[in-house]
Amino acid sequence: MRTVPPSLLALLLALLAAAALLALAILEPQLALAVMPAAVALMVALLFYEAPLLAVGLLVAVYGLAVDVQLDLMATGGAAALGSAVVKLVPFAIAAMLCMRYGFSSAINWPFLAFTIVAMVSIVVLPMGHVSTNAEMVRSFIGSTAPFVLAFAAAPRRVWSSFCKGIVFIPLLSAAAAFLVWPTGLQSPFDANWRFQGMHSPPFLAGFAVTAVFAATLEYLRTGRTRWLLLTGAALAVLLATQARAPLIAVMLFLGIVFLLADRRVLPLKRKVDLVMGGMLPGAILLGPVAIFAADRFFGDDDVNLSGRDVIWPYFIDAIDQRPLFGYGLGAGKLIVDPEDPRIRLIRSNAAHNEYLRLSVDAGILGCALIFSAIVAWVWLGTRRVAAADRLVLRAALVAALLHSGFDNTLIASTAVAQFTWFAAALARARLEQRESIPAGLMREALARRLRVA
């Protein structure tokens, strides 16, 4: 009996879903708008089922072109949060596709488990219902777990390696696309304060650049190829152009840890000397102008605080004082700031710019400690038996990310999806390589024993 090829079947299902969504949009526009994110996620999963590597291109395109920002600018009314919903569902769609094709990972997803515990406590114990609706809490749960959902999936090493490498190009694509569309007037690569923003905003582009530096550094130490060193420099240039201080400090800490603690297996002394001596002049030529541009904000006489942390943090500190142990429930952190405060209107943001404060409001000090302990356990324990380069870079990146979390939104923004997708992919690839190396090691040990006996 003749059967439909799997690839054709996936295409037919995607076309059927698109047709159903179109019919629903004609008959019930509001309902169609509500189900659109889930429908998009389903069609993406079906479309990339037969070609998993295309999912890497999807991830880079969605975040590099700032699809969330563009959709939010086009949407109005109740659809204003459509962009955020779509980009948060993309990792769920990719994870679902990988799980359907390759199965589930055997590693424990500690961060996802921690957020699930916090959400359950929020429903049963905490006064979230008095602060906002359960629907708001569900949206916060989806947004909080989206960065970690890919860790549930299993995949071949080439897929994980493609994710690790693709992450490097997100800020570079954002920068290049912004310059290309600049003449059309659709997007300016600079904000009102002449900070470079690409297709995003300066803080978001800086967040993507931080992860790109992590990823490119890992590939350079693994392969020794010059192109990854150049891509690290390009990501650093983008980061400097955003004039974002906290991300730059985190990256400097990361690079310092890697350079100083790398042993001769990871970065031989000769290569360290070559990097310092041979890289000083090219680095000064390529990064010097951007560094001078960044220094104008870092060391200038302008006293304007563009982040508004001094305005927003007192709101969160007062809320934590009232319920220090268990907080108010997942999603409450973005609801405690008074939107009518003239200072909040001036800075046009109610974000905490501090994940420790935000999560302490959501889940209390205990819940915040649980979430960050889970992230540390996930990365630190996951790198115990992997190659030295992977272990050093992933742990150094974790330390830098923990520092960065004290000054930015590193777990709830779209930048978190890119960062923890890279962590998940790098951990999965390192575990696979470690398992593949065990048989070869056992064979060498067995051969050595035979030679000793002989």
TrEMBL record:
Give the superkingdom in one word.
Bacteria
Residue ranges crossing the lipid bilayer per the database entry: 44-67, 79-104, 110-129, 141-160, 166-183, 204-222, 228-261, 273-295, 363-381
Secretion signal span: none
Q: Which GO terms describe its molecular function?
A: ligase activity
Please give the chief subcellular localization of this protein. Answer: membrane
Keyword line: Ligase, Membrane, Transmembrane, Transmembrane helix
Q: Which GO terms describe its cellular component?
A: membrane
- Describe the location of the O-antigen ligase-related domain by residue ranges: 234-372
What is this protein's name? Answer: O-antigen ligase
**What organism, scientifically named, is this protein from?**
Falsiroseomonas stagni DSM 19981
